[in-house]
Specification:
Oligomer: heterotrimer
Number of domains of chain A: 1
Radius of gyration of chain C: 32 Å
Largest sheet of chain A: 6 strands, mixed
Strand content of chain A: 25-35%
Radius of gyration of chain A: 18 Å
Number of strands of chain C: 12
Shape of chain A: globular
Structural class of chain A: alpha/beta
Largest interface: B-C, 59 and 57 residues
Strand content of chain C: 15-25%
Strand order of the largest sheet of chain A: 6-7-8-3-9-10
Number of domains of chain C: 2
Chains: A alpha/beta (235), B alpha+beta (431), C alpha+beta (408)
Shape of chain C: elongated
Order of helices and strands of chain A: EEEHEEHEHHHEHEHEEH
Distance between the termini of chain C: 30 Å
Largest sheet of chain C: 8 strands, mixed
CATH topology of chain A: Rossmann fold
CATH class of chain A: Alpha Beta
Number of helices of chain C: 13
Chain lengths: 235, 431, 408
């Protein structure tokens, strides 16, 4: 699904050139749930930005869903973001001026989709996260956990092949964080590929596989079956 | 998609009513002012007789003395009586008419109506056909009537209504000063704007109500209006017949460019001929402007009106810059929304379109139109003697619409472009 | 206050700052010129006429029939006498033209008989012996006409008489023709035959028809020529409060003594002045409206953008406050920022104002914009900027320091 080979990302200023990622290789298979961990400044966010086609790498190659996407133009990248990728943000990033229904509608609007089709998908997505009753509410009227569930519904509505989550529970208290995490696990069980960036080792442990990033390079820690079983027992 | 953007725009505009009102008002005010002044200019600089203005010419010759002569200056603005009659009788044009403005007192038969004075035009037979003056009843007089000093008069529809109560008054008697005139024709509504054939009287108001033969008016010593330029003493004090006083307007109709060329040559020959008889001491100075050239030459559009147009467009420019600034602020306040939309997969052009639609929200256009109407109403309340002419016509309506749209889009261009440059991001940053 | 950090911050908002500067520049350029246009108009409409405007009424008449045996010269004298006898009328005259009137008589004058070019184009009043009293023009040097100096207009017209032997001219015309020399006793040529001697000078007497050149407007002469009825109109002098009654009485009187004439106009001279400058007043009003609208639009634009900046920098302001900045310092920050932007706008605007003025001079024959308008416009816009930014800056100053610790 996602394959980065010898990827590099350099930031140039007038004085120095710093590498956020250097010789970065990772392979995420379809249906995997991968947690990317690492200390602050290690290059996690840069990795996620490139994975989500928000930024372009300065070297190496990036294959998404069998297609080389490292050299695409802005329009093509927008199209792929819209069609194949769902984002879940730490700060939820709902549009405050739009109600729940219209927020979930946003990605669908950028596809040529009939009104009936959009309505069906929005309904399903909100059903999935258990917020069907709150269609007309505005983000500010919801709790943090509910907001994040709306954001997940928005990510799901477009039936993306890859879900990218950036500290999805970072702004939530532990109880809400657990609920959101369970939702992600359910989505994963239903067949989605998920890449989640987090600095929380407990959360990371609940993923199938952990990837540790230090100084812009990958240290693959392999699968974490024990912890995963524990989670299953909790659920 | 456009509907989606229109919907988003409407929401966004409603959310900041004060800001929206300010932008709409600023653009509306600027456009209202611009359209109002443009309309006035458009009307004032219009062609008074569009079907044939290119075939009507105002021959100018220069009979003045050598005193105060400056090479290159324009010839005399009017003709003397002797020159006017010579040119008229030469009949070198398809049609020609000699004329002046005047005033006369009407003494109605109806004792209930007090005597009143009217503006008059003393002219010659071709006047009506040459200027396409429309008749409601009857017609003008014949060339023979000019020679016979006929007591014939053509009156306007409004005077006919006032004196005779309307209807076909051909053959009725109208008493002017102390002479009885026979009504030979009643003009339908006719108001060439500006009053091109004689720019001495008010150029956009006060039109004459009676027309009678020049020969008759001169015989009866009717009062004349207009300007008279005398450059030498007049033998026996008779300025009207003097070769040294110009006070008449002379117009010709020449149907082809060849004829116009020939007429120009004729005027030169005439000047030479007069010089050989001891007149026309200056070098030949002949001009043959068309209606529009003459109006232009006489700077018939008040300079104030042009100044107002410039001023209103300057004002519009300020409003435009103002709106660009406000829109920029408004759009960039939504940085976060834009970043999310971009992350979710909106291409740049979609963001651009979304914000341009917001900019172009028709509110400005509608308001501009309203204000234009309001502005015209305001002008009409004012004293300017051309104001009553100001009304909105379809061209101006379309122009208002286009100007409003162009202004709104122009003011949205930069902000929308800046908006679509916002990078897609996972985190909302604030500084 | 140190402006370096403000400039550094402004560099990050180049577009918005530039927009305000451009708006200020445009406003400054337009406002300076418009203010000048307004003063120019008002100056013109307050030009002194030299006559006692609030005491005068004028009457224009038209004959109904042919003169029919009546000698128009005699008729004129008798009608004038009849009008002068109306109670309340102090003096009455018959004259060819009046200030702010519709008809104007103009003559080119020369200083020598054989001069090829005229020295000046002058407004010519043809006056009888009652004119100076009736108009109330102020004779500041020389003498009035004596009765033997008067000619009849018909004789002048028909060339039966020489030009008038004497004339009275305005101070403005005297200076224009003779500079600082004493004009009394000097000769002026109305044609190339005999000279006319200047015998008196009046302070002002405006000609009926004038443009924006006020020297030209006050270039008039009074000639001792009695008019016939066909060319003249009556001017009556009375007490200001008496004018309406006099107008009514005059209409009645003329109907009695001259039944075959109708009155075209019978109005006060004040109304003639008012009509004459109506266009200027409308234009001046319009210009004032433009200035006010410009100021309002510009002020609101500044308020809008400044509010946006404050809102956008709330957190930054909170941090500054947390780090010890006082309210006053925050307030001053925004005020200084506004001052810098407006100053840039004003500098550009002054250049533009001067350029526009040059263009107006060329297009509309207006005088050059006096330089002192520039600082006036600048101060006005500085004030406007400070006034507009006050509310947003106060809002900024009231941001609590705790904002810094709150997440967005």
């Amino acid at each position: 699904m996602l394959k980065m080979t010898h990827l590099a990302k350099a930031f140039r200023t007038e004085v120095v050139e710093t590498y956020a990622l250097r010789d970065f290789s990772i392979h995420v298979r379809t249906g995997e749930f991968v947690a990317v961990t690492g200390p602050s400044g290690s290059g996690k966010t840069t990795f996620l930005n490139i994975a989500g086609l928000l930024e372009t790498p300065t070297g190496g190659s990036y294959e998404l869903d069998g297609e080389d996407v490292s050299r695409l133009g802005d329009d093509a990248r927008s199209r792929i973001r819209n069609g194949k990728i769902g984002f879940i943000f730490q700060a939820f990033n709902l549009i405050p001026d739009l109600n729940i229904y219209d927020n979930v509608d946003v990605p669908l609007r950028y596809r040529k989709m009939s009104g009936a089709e959009r309505k069906k998908r929005i309904g399903e997505a909100l059903e999935r996260v258990g917020l069907s009753a709150r269609l007309r509410h505005y983000p500010a009227e919801l709790s943090g956990g509910q907001q994040q569930r709306v954001a997940i519904a928005r990510a799901l509505a477009g039936s993306p092949k890859l879900l990218l989550a950036d500290e999805p529970t970072g702004n939530l208290d532990s109880q809400m964080a657990r609920a959101v995490m369970q939702l992600l696990e359910e989505i994963h069980r239903d067949g989605a590929t998920i890449v989640m960036v987090t600095h929380d080792p407990e959360l990371a442990a609940r993923a199938q596989r952990n990837v540790h990033v230090i100084d812009g390079q990958v240290v693959d820690l392999g699968e974490a079956p024990t912890l995963r079983m524990n989670v299953a027992a909790n659920a | 998609m456009l509907r989606y953007y229109a919907w988003l725009a409407a929401r966004s505009l409603k959310r900041n009513p004060a800001l929206t009102a300010l932008m709409v008002l600023a653009i509306g005010l600027g456009i209202g002012a611009s359209i109002t002044t443009l309309t006035v200019l458009h009307i004032l600089s219009g062609d008074p007789i569009p079907e044939k203005s290119a075939r009507l010419f105002y021959p100018q010759i220069d009979p003045r003395t050598i005193n105060d002569y400056h090479p290159g200056e324009a010839p005399a603005e009017q003709v003397t009586y002797p020159d006017g009659m010579n040119l008229l009788q030469a009949k070198r044009a398809d049609r020609q008419a000699l004329m002046t403005g005047g005033g006369a007192v009407v003494l109605p038969d109806d004792a209930a109506i007090d005597p009143f004075s009217v503006d008059a035009r003393y002219t010659t037979a071709d006047f009506f056909a040459m200027f396409d003056a429309p008749f409601q009843y009857g017609s003008g007089w014949k060339a023979a009537d000019d020679d016979a000093h006929a007591r014939d008069v053509v009156i306007t529809r409004s005077l006919n209504k006032k004196v005779f109560g309307g209807g076909n008054s051909v053959g009725k008697t109208l008493r002017l000063q102390s002479t009885d005139f026979r009504v030979v024709g009643v003009l339908d509504d006719w108001r060439p704007t500006p009053h091109f054939y004689d720019l001495n009287s008010a150029r956009y108001s006060d039109y004459e109500e009676v027309f009678l033969p020049l020969s008759t008016a001169m015989e009866l010593e009717f009062g004349r209006n207009g300007s008279m330029d005398c450059w030498d003493n007049t033998p026996d004090g008779d300025q009207l017949h003097s070769p040294n006083c110009s006070w008449l307007q002379f117009w010709v109709e020449l149907d082809t460019p060849e004829k116009a060329k020939a007429y120009q040559a004729f005027l030169n020959n005439y000047s030479d001929e007069q010089r050989s008889q001891g007149r026309f001491p200056r070098p030949n100075n002949v001009r043959l402007p068309t209606v529009m050239q003459w109006l232009d030459d006489q700077k018939v559009v008040p300079t104030d009106v042009r100044l107002q147009v410039w001023l209103s467009f300057g004002f519009l420019a300020v409003c435009l810059v103002n709106t660009i600034g406000l829109m920029l602020a408004k759009f960039l306040r939504r940085n976060g929304e834009i970043a999310v939309r971009r992350a979710i997969g909106a291409p740049r052009r979609e963001i651009f379109a979304q914000f341009l639609v917001e900019a172009g929200a028709v509110a400005g256009a509608v308001l501009g139109l309203l204000l234009a109407l309001f502005g015209l109403w305001g002008v009409r309340q004012q004293a300017a003697d051309y104001a009553e002419l100001a009304h909105i016509d379809p061209t101006m309506l379309l122009m208002t619409l286009l100007l409003a749209l162009a202004t709104a889009l122009l003011s949205g261009l930069l902000p929308a472009w800046r908006a679509c440059q916002v990078t897609p991001a996972l985190q909302l940053k604030s500084d | 206050m140190d402006i370096a950090p403000i400039i550094a911050a402004l560099k990050r908002q180049k577009t918005a700052a530039a927009l305000i500067a451009i708006e200020i520049a445009l406003s400054c350029a337009i406002i300076c010129n418009v203010l000048f246009l307004i003063t120019h108009r008002l100056e013109r409409s307050h030009v002194p006429s030299g006559v006692v405007e609030d005491e005068l009424v004028y009457i224009r008449t038209a004959g109904i029939g042919a003169s029919g045996g009546d000698d128009p010269m005699v008729r004129a004298r008798e009608d004038r006498a009849a009008l002068a006898s109306i109670p309340g009328v102090k003096s009455a005259t018959i004259i060819n033209q009046i200030p702010f009137g519709h008809s104007s008589w103009n003559t080119g004058v020369k200083l020598a008989a054989d001069q090829q070019q005229t020295s000046a184009n002058v407004g010519a009043y043809y006056a009888d012996e009652h004119m100076l009293d009736s108009f109330g023009v102020k004779l500041i040097a020389g003498r009035q006409f004596t009765s033997d100096e008067f000619l009849n207009f018909d004789d002048v017209l028909k060339g039966k008489s020489d030009p008038p032997s004497s004339m009275i001219i305005t101070k403005t015309l005297a200076r224009r023709l003779f500079g600082d020399e004493n004009a009394i006793g000097k000769n002026i040529y109305l044609d190339d035959t005999k000279p006319t001697r200047v015998i008196g000078i009046v302070e002002h007497l405006i000609r009926p028809n004038f443009g924006s050149d006020l020297i030209d407007a006050d270039s008039s002469m009074i000639l001792p020529v009695r008019l016939s009825l066909g060319y003249g109109q009556f001017v009556l002098r009375t007490d200001p409060g008496n004018r309406d009654a006099v107008i009514a009485a005059a209409r009645k009187k003329l109907k009695e003594v001259s039944p075959n004439r109708i009155v075209l106009d019978a109005k006060t001279l004040e109304s003639a002045r008012s009509d004459y400058f109506k266009q200027d007043r409308v234009m001046a009003g319009l210009l004032v409206a433009v200035v006010i609208s410009l100021l309002i639009v510009t002020a609101l634009g500044i308020v809008g953008l400044a509010s946006f900046w404050v809102q956008r920098r709330r957190r930054q302001i909170g941090i500054r406050r947390a780090l010890g900045a006082t309210r006053r310092q925050i307030l001053h920050y925004f005020q200084t920022e506004n001052f810098l932007i407006v100053t840039v706008g004003i500098v550009i605007g002054m250049g533009a104002a001067y350029a526009i003025s040059g263009w107006l001079m060329h297009q509309y024959e207006l005088p050059r914009l006096p330089l002192y308008y520039l600082p006036v416009g600048a101060v006005a816009l500085w004030l406007l900027g400070q006034l507009s930014v006050l509310a947003p800056a106060l809002r900024a100053a009231s941001v609590p320091p705790a904002t810094a610790t709150r997440t967005v």
